[in-house]
Amino acid sequence: MPDCVTRCWGDKRMTGCRLGMYHAVEQFEPAIMPSSPDLTAALRGSVSTEPASHPRQLEEEVVGLFDQLRNRLLRYTLSLGLPVQDGEEVIQEAFLSLFEHLRGGKPRHNLQGWVFRVAHNLALKRRVREHAFEDGRRFEDGDPERHPDPSLNPEDQAIWNQRFRRLLAVMGALPERDQLCLRLRAEGLRYREIAEVLGISVGAVSISLTRSLARLTRASER
Amino acid sequence: MLLNNPHLSDEELLLLSDGELHRRRARRMRRHLAACWECRTRMAEFEDAIADFVHVHRASFDPQLPPAAGPRALLRARLAEPGKTTTGRQWRWPFGLVISARSLGAIVAAVVLIVAGFGTWIYRAGSIGGQSHARFLTATVPNPQLTPGTIRPVELQDVCAEADAEADKDPLWQVPIAMQQAALREYGVSGSRAKDYELDFLIPPSLGGTDDIHNLWPEPDSKTVWNARAKDALEDRLHALVCAGDLDISEAQREISSDWIAAYKRYFHTERPTMFEGQPVSPRPPRGSI
């Protein structure tokens, strides 16, 4: 199994396509995968990139990371129940903190996990302050009919819409922590990174994901 | 994979699919998958469920995502604005010195840490015979003061019955991350250096070791001859000998915790681990040949 597929749930769409759903996924996220191998490695922490000594270089580096992570972070903050504008502000704060972090010569290991953790904490604080969506935004917000897949014929589209709604219902019934584990994994975080963002053990992440996917599998089989 | 259940559990399938398994266990699972259609079918169902989830997750939120150009320009402007990245209350000190609340907090924290750290240093230096520098040594052999190895009372049938299940499971999964980080800190491993090490149990659970910080140490991953893979091979060998009745478990625990490299040489009859595609190749000696 190729490593990129193993590590990234986003790429699993290439291995288990049914009902042409991946066309729809692609149209939502044409440029989500990192394009630069060096930057990808830095995000993953698999290499320690040379620190940018000049402030201008550092700015470019932070903006480059922003380009790679912004959509994923915004999707995650929205799933926590923040409005888009608040989510954008959280992300701005997270990247300004990242700039300070790097400018202070602090560890550059696994910047992706670092930014997600900061954004998660900022989003929760904001959520409490604004009393917005105390339990996070549930999956019921999705509407398959708003984004029909042009590759499907009407019959398949109807079948998919029905299945989509069934999956939404199952996901919406999951405890919030299980939903967050799924969402963070879908955004490309490894189990250890998810554990650090949510403050739980790696084993708990594994159990949560297994439980949730077992439910989703049963829902798909119906 | 339990002895009385030949198939992989849902959790094992997911861990394998996500590349989160300990390498030895992953090898075993892949061998099973290659032979078992039932497990492969369940694996495919899991992959489909993941694909469904990714689709629903993105379809639920992606339509709301505005273009990134505006926020990117805003971030760039805020980064370029000198002094604007740090926000918060500031104090003006004598001689025109301006200090922010965050900096003041950092200074206070630093003073506290220095005082606490100095106390800890004195304590540890005393407790380990003045070898304070040992805290910062990361070597192929653990520091016996920090990692003497800890065991739990076990019966032979316990560790041997676990052979295909819990003993082969990566035991670090059950260790709190805070404890893992503390173990790395004790050996002076931090930041990007951590990737070169694999946190390992000195006495593996398959030989009765426990998930205690005194049984943990950062082991060089692959860049040294005596690395984590060589130790894995020794663990497998000792476990096999113990379960075959050729070696007492307490003797195996003592051997691996006192000097695992010497034990490797003794049990594999070699001065250096033989490597093949990154894995030690070590044919099992005939019974009683130790």
What does this structure look like?
The complex is a heterodimer of chains A (222) and B (290). Chain A has 222 residues and is mainly α. In chain A, α9 crosses α10. The relative contact order of chain A is 0.11. Chain A has helices spanning 3-7, 21-28, 37-44, 55-79, 84-103, 111-130, 154-172, 176-186, 191-198, 202-221. Chain A is 65% helix and 0% strand. With 290 residues, chain B is mostly helical. Chain B has helices spanning 10-17, 23-35, 37-61, 69-80, 101-127, 156-161, 177-186, 228-243, 249-258, 260-268, and strands spanning 90-92, 98-100, 197-201, 216-220, 275-276, 279-280. The two termini of chain B are 31 Å apart. Chains A and B meet through α1, α2, α4, α5 and α7 of A and α1, α3 and α4 of B.
Comma- or semicolon-separated keywords:
heterodimer, A: 222 residues, mainly alpha, 65% helix, 0% strand, B: 290 residues, two-stranded antiparallel ribbon, 10 helices, disordered C terminus
Strand content of chain A: under 5%
Low-confidence stretches of chain A: 12-35, 136-140
Q: Oligomeric state of the chains?
A: heterodimer
Average the pLDDT over all residues of chain B and give the rounded result: 74
* Helix run count of chain A: 10
What is the helix/strand order of chain B? HHHHEEHHHEEHHHEE
Shape of chain A: globular
Helix content of chain B: 40-55%
What about the largest sheet of chain B? 2 strands, antiparallel
User: Helical proportion of chain A?
Assistant: 55-70%
Please state the CA-atom Rg of chain A, rounded to the nearest Å. 18 Å
Roughly what fraction of the amino acids of chain B lie in strands? 5-15%
Distance between the termini of chain B: 31 Å
Q: Tell me the radius of gyration of chain B.
A: 26 Å
Give the end-to-end Cα distance of chain A, rounded to a whole number of Å. 28 Å
Shape of chain B: flat
Number of strands of chain A: 0
Strand order of the largest sheet of chain B: 1-2
Structural class of chain B: mainly alpha
SSE arrangement of chain A, N to C? HHHHHHHHHH
